[in-house]
Design goal:
eight-stranded mixed β-sheet, 12 helices, elongated, binds NADPH dihydro-nicotinamide-adenine-dinucleotide phosphate, binds (2S)-3,4-dihydro-2H-pyrrole-2-carboxylic acid
């Protein structure tokens, strides 16, 4: 892509997107500039990826055609105030923060600006990200094409109405954390039964990835896929019954509600 990409803030999420884009070769390192709060992170990112780096957010704003904001939700007003007069004419501003609305970005400017609100996740680092996005009225078809090309370079993208964006962390932005807990627990169970820990992690992760792929590729109902694993009178149904007794599904739903409630708080 013959466009310039900027990241204001390049921590866990920004770096995952940056690495995903570079790995997919949708953009070359010289087309990317990052700004960070600390010289330490700047040096880490510029050395690792050979991209341009600065501690001056205004410099990135003046460089980027697609400006990703990889900062914490609470930093947005301050950083947008800092860069608002430096953002390029026609640049697309792309948020990734939980709860940060399109209007919060629009209202930081005294002119109309192009805004894309996204909610990605860290598996973008390995090209298996899931990003939800919504756009404002200034975004053109060509912008959508460019932004989805960038986002699709490190995973899948779904376009949603903004009303649904606060629900996205719970299902795909934050959910890798719950899945890692599940994998860790599966591996602990294997280790308890004598399986060496390294093999236990590989076996648990592959089982989770395989199950996810079954849902995506067969498009069968997850319950039907579960039924196929439960041999009558077999071991799996005993495990399923124990999970039901311990309210696995209810626990997940409660966790997701906590996540969404917290996200909604960021918009206030
Ligand atoms: N982590 C995740 O899985 C996901 C995170 N997000 C969103 O991504 C955003 C970042 O989260 P995450 O990557 O986890 O957080 P991190 O703390 O890892 O990264 C924050 C980055 O912002 C930089 N930063 C802080 N203040 C400034 C500033 N004033 N100017 C420029 N850069 C600044 C930090 O620099 P330094 O390193 O030098 O301190 C760091 O690089 C959040 O809004 C979050 O909601 C969205 C989806 C998933
Ligand atoms: O924990 C957070 O707030 C961010 C949003 C989604 C994942 N991490």
């Amino acid at each position: 892509m013959n466009k310039k990409i900027g990241f204001i803030g390049c921590g866990k999420m920004g770096e995952a997107m940056l690495e995903g884009m570079l790995h997919a070769e949708v953009i070359s390192p010289e087309g990317i500039m990052v700004s960070t709060a600390s010289a330490e992170t700047k040096t880490k990112i510029t050395t690792k990826y050979n991209v341009k780096g600065t501690l001056d957010n205004k410099e990135v704003a003046g460089f980027a055609d697609f400006l990703f904001l990889g900062i914490q939700p609470a930093m947005h007003k301050q950083v947008l105030e800092e860069v608002k007069n430096h953002v390029k004419e026609d640049a697309v501003i792309i948020t990734m923060a939980a709860g940060i609305t399109v209007s919060l970005v629009e209202n930081s400017f005294e002119k109309r600006v192009k805004v894309v609100r996204t909610m990605p996740n860290t598996p973008s680092l390995v090209g298996e990200g899931m990003t939800a996005m919504c756009i404002n009225d200034e975004i053109t078809d060509a912008d959508i094409e460019n932004v989805t090309a960038l986002l699709n370079s490190f995973g899948k993208t779904e376009i949603l109405h903004e009303d649904l964006m606060d629900a996205v962390p719970a299902i795909s932005g934050s959910s890798p954390a719950y899945v890692y807990m599940f994998i860790e627990a599966l591996a602990d169970g294997g280790v308890r039964d004598g399986i060496p820990r390294k093999q236990a992690y590989r076996m648990a992760a592959q089982a989770v990835m395989g199950a996810a792929k079954m849902v995506l590729e067969t498009e069968r109902h997850p319950a039907a896929l579960k039924d196929d694993v439960c041999t009558p009178g077999g071991s799996t149904i005993s495990a399923v019954a124990a999970l039901e007794e311990n309210q696995l599904r209810s626990s997940i739903l409660q966790a997701m509600k906590a996540c969404t409630d917290k996200t909604k708080g960021f918009s206030k």
